[in-house]
């Protein structure tokens, strides 16, 4: 490459950055100029060929075509598997020290799932019965009453209802509330590890990189209390083999629970009607004031 080539390439990059100089929003200008600068630096660094550029366009086009506006969101999956979702999460939750840690939202949340009473069973398909209990607290340890816990997990086949159209509506999903002591109780099944979808462009990327697609077993929570920051997190099974190699980098040590055997005493279910044997886990969530 001659000095003339270098100057011409740098000029193209500078012109593209400068084309955002007149943006009406300073934040938009900052984001777009930084994006263009880093994108050009990447193209220059790897000296992208025309065939590779076209392959990139094809990959992004396929990613868009693999979104259905309901439960399949391949762009979120791409962000998750590139570690971008967890980086955005980390940047946006730097200051919460005593509050419960956050993790990826993922692409499988569905709004408007059934309201469920204290201890109601949300599992309409088979699995090891589990009772997940705990409290929702503020950072001073005071119970938060009537907190809404939107909960979702996969069935034993590793698929979410909605994603797997064979599952009954609302299976392993629901909106629970805390009682007057800030306590919640969810009757469900023990979560299982599962692979993220690999039948689209993200799957092609994982295979090309010799990466596996597995997420460690977890239960998703989105907890909402007026006046507090919405908490999006998971509880991971502490004995899962994929804790160290989550396909989307979402595991945090503080978000692990152990499902204990509860073989003998119905009293362990705190008066709730659980089939025996079952497993039980306990976790207190701590919410940060807005
Ligand atoms: C999930 O846990 O549902 C999930 C998160 C990121 C990517 C795929 C799935
Ligand atoms: Fe999940």
Quick structural overview:
The protein has six helices and eleven strands. By secondary structure, it is α+β, with helices and mostly antiparallel strands.
Helices and strands in order:
Elements: H1 3-18, H2 26-46, H3 50-65, H4 74-81, H5 84-92, E1 129-138, E2 148-152, E3 173-177, E4 183-189, E5 194-195, H6 201-208, E6 214-215, E7 218-224, E8 231-237, E9 256-257, E10 260-262, E11 278-287
Parallel strand pairs: 1-11, 8-9
Antiparallel strand pairs: 1-4, 2-3, 2-7, 5-6, 7-8, 10-11
Helix pairs in contact: 1-2
The chain binds benzoic acid and fe (iii) ion.
The helix tally amounts to 6
Mean pLDDT: 94
- Uncertain residue segments: none
The share of residues in helices is 25-40%
- Count of folded domains: 2
CATH topology annotation of the largest domain: Protocatechuate 3,4-Dioxygenase, subunit A
The CATH architecture of the largest domain can be given as Sandwich
Bound molecules: benzoic acid, fe (iii) ion
Q: In sequence order, what are the helices and strands, one letter per element?
A: HHHHHEEEEEHEEEEEE
CATH top level of the largest domain?
Mainly Beta
What portion of residues belong to β-strands? 15-25%
DSSP summary, beta strand count: 11
CATH superfamily of the largest domain: Aromatic compound dioxygenase
- SS class: alpha+beta
* Biggest sheet features: 5 strands, mixed
How does the overall form come out from the CA principal axes?
elongated
End-to-end distance: 54 Å
Q: List the strand order in the largest sheet.
A: 3-2-7-8-9
